[in-house]
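Hey, I'm writing a tutorial for new members on how sequence and structure tokens pair up, and I'd like a real worked example in the thread rather than a made-up one. If someone can provide the structure for the chain below, I'll link this post from the tutorial.
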Amino acid sequence: MKFKIIITFVLIAVLGVTASVYLFPGDRAKIRRQFESLSGFVSKEKGESAFVMAYKVNALASLFDDSCSFEFSQNYMTGEYSPEQITGHAVKGRAQFSRISLTFYDMVPEIQKDIAVVETTVRFHGELRDSSKFTEDTREIRCSLKKNGGKWKFTSFKVVEVLKK
């Protein structure tokens, strides 16, 4: 009888801890979800409908702060952009590809109060529209996020130059 009570209490405790972690995630988990959302909204599958594209592009804007800076070595899209400008670039970029995937690896968030800096590896894979060609690129980037109203929003993206042979 005591054994059943102990097992019951242990199960309740495990369920309670699991539920609290899932229902009340910490800042690191929220930041990781922002990256997962970014990856999901940028992704594209062959035959994606205009409705799905519009949903993803509109949802993409919600991930960014009022102003977000981009610093890329090729000067493509370098500067400060509003969420609306970012989605405009996303629409143009997505139109060039029939399939897109964006994956983030090795995220290491450093959080100081309401500011987070995340160093991560990003991999882009895109199949060009009306062609069998594809483009693939892997980069190290440094992203900054700001907590605003309980939500983490992207404020900057910068390519971290690594040594080349």
